[in-house]
Design goal:
This protein is α/β, with parallel strands linked by helices. It has a single domain, classed as Zn peptidases (Aminopeptidase), CATH 3.40.630. Helices cover 33% and strands 19% of the residues. It has eight helices and ten strands. The protein has helices at residues 7-16, 23-32, 81-93, 111-116, 138-150, 166-179, 203-213, 272-291; strands at residues 38-45, 54-60, 68-74, 101-106, 154-160, 193-197, 227-228, 231-235, 238-241, 257-262. The protein has a ten-stranded mixed beta sheet with strand order 1-2-4-3-5-10-6-9-8-7. α7 (203-213) runs antiparallel to α8 (272-291). The mean pLDDT is 97.
């Protein structure tokens, strides 16, 4: 008879994880380049290694209470590479064109998971199910505390993610072992899709984003039952979740306009740059949409 993992099992899992890329080189050194044009704020340090894993927010200078507040988040799941690099690419190339907003941009919420290419943090916790009061997830709590201290109303939140083949080959099997329960594979959609908030679906914005992303990469088709990852599509390439109830990052601000991206990097028709480009298109299109309102 098996049973859910205890602290010893979780430590065994942690000890098997390997550093596979550099947060310092890929993210921190890029953030350093932004310090002349943007405010860079340290808002957390992972207790695993405070010197190695600081977490930063990049903010537009000269906050103006008359501007709409926008949150852009990447790397909630550290293994979802184009989310991190999509935020960095947007800051590097386009953010200065959107200073009519107060921009708050978080390139990588989960730096250890970025380096080890993991969905979970080092304590086997999924940050994107952990945005709730008194969360036991350090990465999620740091962001929530940062937002609480800002004490602002956000108009738009764009959260950048990927759906990968490793969801079925690595992460869902690990979840089944950790919790000692049956976790079925899901059908990995071949293409890009969006997740909106079922309580504030923003259909027109989602549809506009899909139209623009389709110019960069293909959109995931619905299955024979009109679903993507088991959820009924509200329109082509769009599903909606209970973001707040599920503890998702997308529900953390209650923003009037919100969307979560899901890029498919394992497609034979995609490559890393296409995936990054798709993420950037989402950010730009969402900003253009609310700018026009």
């Amino acid at each position: 008879m098996t049973k859910p993992w205890n602290s010893y099992d979780k430590k065994l899992w942690f000890d098997k994880q390997k550093i596979q890329r550099s947060y310092k080189k890929d993210v921190l050194e890029q953030i350093d380049l932004f310090k002349n044009e943007f405010d860079v704020e340290l808002y957390g340090k992972l207790s695993l290694n405070e010197n190695k894993y600081p977490i930063y927010a990049i903010k537009s200078k000269d906050f103006d209470k008359n501007k709409k507040n926008v949150l852009i988040t990447g790397g909630v799941h550290g293994y979802e590479t184009s989310g991190i690099h999509g935020v960095l690419e947007f800051i590097r190339t386009y953010a200065k064109d959107y200073l009519d907003f107060n921009l708050f941009m978080i390139p990588c919420l989960s730096p250890w998971a970025y380096e080890t290419i993991n969905r979970w943090n080092n304590k086997t916790i999924d940050p994107n199910r952990s945005f709730y009061e008194n969360s036991n997830c350090e990465e999620s709590m740091y962001l929530m505390n940062f937002l609480k201290n800002l004490d602002l109303e956000f108009y738009l939140h764009v959260d950048l993610h990927e759906t990968t083949n490793s969801d079925n080959s690595i992460f869902r099997p690990a979840l089944a072992l950790r919790d000692d329960k049956i976790v079925d594979d899901w059908e990995i959609p071949d293409g890009f899709y969006l997740v909106g908030d079922v309580n504030q679906p923003n259909d027109k914005m989602q549809e506009k984003i899909i139209q623009e992303v389709e110019k960069v990469t293909h959109i995931a088709p619905s299955d024979k039952d009109g679903r993507i990852i088991g959820e009924k599509t509200s329109s082509f390439g769009v599903i909606n979740y209970e973001t707040k109830a599920l503890g998702l990052c997308a529900g953390v601000t209650g923003a009037k306009f919100c969307t979560t991206t899901e890029v498919y990097p394992d497609s034979k028709n995609a490559n890393p740059q296409i995936c990054i480009d798709a993420q950037v298109v989402v950010i730009k299109t969402a900003l253009e949409y609310i700018r026009a309102i």
